[in-house]
Design a protein that fits this description.
Chain B: Keywords: Cell membrane, Membrane, Transmembrane, Transmembrane helix, Transport. Chain B: It comes from Arthrobacter sulfonylureivorans. Chain B: It is found in: Cell membrane. Chain B: This is Carbohydrate ABC transporter permease. The complex is a heterodimer of chains A (about 375) and B (about 280). Chain A has 10 helices and 20 strands. Chain A is of the alpha+beta class and about 375 residues long. In chain A, the strands form 4 sheets. Chain A has a 6-stranded mixed beta sheet with strand order 6-7-8-3-9-10, sandwiched between helices. In chain A, strands 13-12-11-14-20 form a 5-stranded antiparallel beta sheet. In chain B, helix 1 crosses helix 11, helix 6 crosses helix 8 and helix 7 packs antiparallel against helix 8. Chain B is about 70% helix and about 0% strand. Chain B has about 280 residues and is an all-alpha fold. The chains are: A alpha+beta (about 375), B mainly alpha (about 280). The interface between A and B is medium-sized, with 34 and 25 residues.
């Protein structure tokens, strides 16, 4: 068990101009479950592979505990990794797969069998120990890959999209299993995914990456409530936040037929004559005619308890897709026009030019470290 | 539903039987001939009226013994050595092609292909002159080297294609599991690569074993003459007697090693061993 530190770590692939990971600074606490999330090509897998030692670090350092492992080969890092495709050894039985690392490490046969059995029990794999991987289902293979990591009792677990090959139902089930298992074992875990739902449900903290640059790292709650920039705002949350470029008026921003009040000092921070206003689908409410933004309803998805309203609006020559979440019993009709406004105190304001959040310095921005969090890591653990 | 499946099966059985007949007819015909007496060769019957082992006697213990046994020894030795060298070189080459990114990768593959489509008959005469000048004529290396030019291209292509299918994530998984680079290669990759290497070795052996043009052109004595070439030197008991019976017997005998090879290694050639490594 150990902390993990990325210290200005960068990775530049030969023959490319732009680093795949650019000056990543990240401190992961002992026993923490940290999720790296971002769209494909954002450098999350590269970051993980740098930590594993499978990818060179071109600049900066990586530390596990107090040990600088930047130039340490993978085998000496005391880490265990679960690969996206599981990478089970096809010519070995499940037991041999799980015991491979111990065998390499020279652990005696009896102890090896004992530890494999323990891990198999934990993962419900006992009856499959003699099988070859090809005789297992996808979910079982995934568990063997997990077992291979657990048996090692390593300092850090690394998981590279371990659920992406499972079907939807199994994925949800395994998601909770992995989260509870790693917490029970208390091993520091770095988990890579492109699925923001996975990120939000599993992580103690979530680090959002884009184009190799860390955008924000914070607890799922804080990430949802206080996204540090437009990208995080649009990426976290499903359906995505509505983001509108609105003209600044006296004492607020022009939201359709109404003026949404914004403190003057906040508006003063913005560059240019517009600000980007973000409002989550559930924070939109119906307004009286003309006292809000006119939205033409294209599609209504009724989910029972709620209904999602997908519509669009146009102003200043731009078209915006608007999503709203409304009570399932009284949804608007497709083809109609409704007026909406944001609920008081539930909007996010961003500088249109820089994309940064207006207002106070948000915790969890790239400069912030674990200590800056107002929500302690331990609290985050129990909260979700 | 059931009827259509039965119909499909019947069709398959018919096709299989036709292919088998087509492929096995020459072999059976030669085998039948090898058991015929010289007087019966032109009888026009498919099976001998009385079976005789005299042709086998002739080549194994009789007058053609020296010619046949020494050529058999040459064939086995030369084909095995050529196969071994070709597989070792091709494994290294294909590994590099499948794993590394280096300039000239395409050139190597294309060159290998170009070499293999070069007609053998057109280089055999210059090679004959060259070999005589540098003393390789009628020696084992004198055949092993041209055989490499036949076996290497196909070995490189087969192995490169095979290596590309190996999930190299396994190597990384082994490294993360604490294995050194060499251990990762030996314990995670070699077991998966073995079937491909075996298959390639067998193909290479067939090619070297079956060659006739080089064998007849680049040898002159028992020192290096392989079986396919030696068959042409068989003579009948008198000049009026055809050696067809003896040639057939020899042909059957040289087919046996090939059949044995396939039977022995068919378990290693089992493909699909890599199934289950990745999600599948």
């Amino acid at each position: 068990m150990a902390t993990v530190t990325f210290d200005h770590a960068s990775r530049l692939y030969p023959g490319t101009e732009k680093p795949a990971v650019d000056g990543l600074n990240l401190e992961i606490a002992d026993g923490e479950f940290l999720v790296l999330v971002g769209p494909s090509g954002c450098g999350k897998s590269t970051s993980l592979r740098m930590l594993a030692g499978l990818e060179d670090v071109n600049a900066g350092r990586i530390l596990i505990g107090d040990r600088d492992v930047t130039d340490v080969p993978p085998k000496d890092r005391d880490i265990a990794m679960v690969f996206q495709n599981y990478a089970l050894y096809p010519h070995m039985s499940v037991a041999d797969n799980m015991g491979f690392a111990l065998k390499i490490a020279g652990v005696s046969k009896e102890e090896r069998a004992e530890r494999v059995r323990e891990a198999a029990k934990l993962l419900d794999l006992e009856e499959y120990l003699d099988r070859k991987p090809k005789a297992l289902s996808g979910g079982q293979r995934q568990r063997v890959a997990m077992g291979r990591a657990i048996v090692r009792n390593p300092q850090v677990f690394l998981m590279d999209e371990p659920l992406s090959n499972l079907d939807a139902k199994l994925r949800v089930q395994t998601r909770t299993q992995i989260a509870s298992l790693t917490r029970r074992l208390g091993v520091t875990t770095v988990y890579v995914t492109h699925d923001q739902v996975e990120a939000m449900t599993m992580g103690d903290r979530v680090a959002v990456l884009k184009d190799g640059v860390l955008q924000q790292v914070d607890t799922p709650r804080a990430l949802y409530d206080r996204p540090a920039n437009v990208f995080v705002a649009g990426f976290i949350g499903s359906p995505a936040m509505n983001l509108l470029e609105l003209p600044v008026t006296d004492g607020g921003v022009q939201f359709g037929g109404m003026t949404y009040p914004v403190p003057r000092d906040l508006l003063g921070e913005a560059h240019g004559s517009t600000v980007t206003l973000g409002v989550r689908p559930e924070d939109l409410e119906r307004a009286e005619d003309n006292h809000g933004l006119a939205v033409f309803v294209d599609v209504v998805e009724e989910l029972g308890a709620d209904a999602y309203v997908y519509g669009h609006t146009e102003f200043d020559g731009k078209r915006y897709e608007i999503t709203g979440r409304v009570d399932g019993r009284t949804p608007p009709v497709a083809g109609s026009t409704v007026y909406v406004r944001p609920k008081e105190g539930h909007v996010h304001l961003f500088d249109t030019q820089t994309g940064l959040r207006l207002g106070e310095h948000a915790p969890g921005t790239p400069e912030a470290s674990v200590e800056d969090l107002n929500v302690p890591v331990e609290a985050g653990k129990t909260a979700d | 539903m059931k009827a259509s499946r039965t119909k499909e099966r019947v069709t398959w059985i018919i096709i299989s039987v036709l292919v088998l007949l087509y492929a096995l007819f020459p072999v059976v015909s030669i085998m039948a001939t090898s058991f015929k007496l010289p007087s019966e060769l032109t009888s026009g019957k498919f099976l001998p009226s009385s079976w005789t082992g005299s042709n086998y006697e002739q080549i194994l213990v009789g007058s053609a013994q020296d010619l046949f046994l020494s050529s058999l020894r040459n064939s086995i030795g030369i084909a095995l050595i050529a196969t071994f060298i070709a597989v070792v070189l091709a494994t290294l080459c294909a590994y590099a092609i499948a794993r590394l990114d280096f300039p000239g990768k395409k050139v190597i593959l294309t060159t290998a292909l170009a070499v293999s489509i070069f007609p053998v008959i057109s280089i055999v005469t210059p090679l004959f002159n060259l070999w005589r000048n540098i003393g390789l004529y009628d020696t084992w290396p004198g055949l092993i080297i041209p055989y490499l030019s036949l076996t290497l291209p196909i070995s490189i292509w087969t192995l490169a294609a095979f290596f590309r299918q190996i999930p190299w994530e396994l190597e990384q998984a082994a490294q993360v599991d604490g294995a050194t680079t060499w251990q990762a290669f030996r314990k995670a990759i070699v077991p998966l690569a073995a079937p491909g290497v075996f298959t390639t070795a067998i193909i290479a052996f067939f090619i070297a074993w079956n060659d006739f043009v080089y064998g007849i052109s680049l040898t002159s004595t028992e020192a290096a003459r392989p079986v396919p070439a030696a068959l042409a030197f068989f003579t009948g008991a008198s000049q009026f007697e055809s050696p067809v019976g003896a040639i057939s017997a020899a042909a059957i005998i040289v087919t046996i090693p090939i059949v044995l090879l396939v039977l022995l290694f068919q378990r290693q050639i089992v493909s699909g061993l890599t199934q289950g490594a990745v999600k599948g």
